[in-house]
Amino acid sequence: MVNLANFLTGVRFLGTPVLIYYYLNYDYGIAFWLMLFLGITDWFDGFFARKFSQESQFGKMFDPIADKTLMIGMFATLGYLNAMPITFVILCLTRDVLIIIGGISMLGSKRKIDLSPTIVSKINTFLQILCILLVTYRLHSINRSSLLLFSETTMIVVTGLFTITSGAQYAKTFWRFLKNK
């Protein structure tokens, strides 16, 4: 079913390789605006789905795939470009891979498991998007002020803490599932 929420999810999914292309070609100005746009689609697709009753099975399955594609693509790309500390990149990638593996392991289960994003997970995604935007701004900017570098470092630390907390919540959910299988 095509609706605005699903359309935005598709835009995010299809826009990710284009975004990676701009990063790998060092066109950080376009990358910044495209990342901002794709990040906003993450919020708007959920808003439209809830507000206008556009929730669908397609959206429930494809939205997390589009989210993971964007975030894994960005952290892998920024790690490759040495634009972020490698420990932070590994932390973010590990969380998303854990979620993917956990979600796949639950497929086909007769038990209903709620994998809806928690408030910590939503905050984490928001912070990760802001972190990517801040790093991209620094990559594009001629002005590499100490305030900008301090803000980026602070954002990475705060985002890292939320990533650990969110990952632990998902790990706990998956552990319960495996323990009671």
* CATH topology title: Four Helix Bundle (Hemerythrin (Met), subunit A)
* Assigned CATH class: Mainly Alpha
Which architecture would the CATH scheme give at its second level? Up-down Bundle
Structural class: mainly alpha
Could you give the distance between the termini? Answer: 33 Å
Radius of gyration: 17 Å
Number of strands: 0
* CATH 4th-level superfamily: CDP-alcohol phosphotransferase transmembrane (TM) domain
Nearest-integer average pLDDT: 90
Q: How would you describe this structure to a colleague?
A:
By secondary structure, the chain is mainly alpha-helical. Helix content is 81%, strand content 0%. It has six helices and no strands. It is globular.
In short:
The chain has 181 residues and is mainly alpha-helical. The chain has helices at 4-24, 28-51, 57-80, 86-106, 119-140, 146-179.
Question: Layout of SSEs?
Answer:
Blueprint: H1 4-24, H2 28-51, H3 57-80, H4 86-106, H5 119-140, H6 146-179
Helix pairs in contact: 1-2, 1-3, 2-3, 2-5, 3-4, 4-6, 5-6
Describe this protein with a few key phrases.
mainly alpha, Four Helix Bundle (Hemerythrin (Met), subunit A), 6 helices, 0% strand
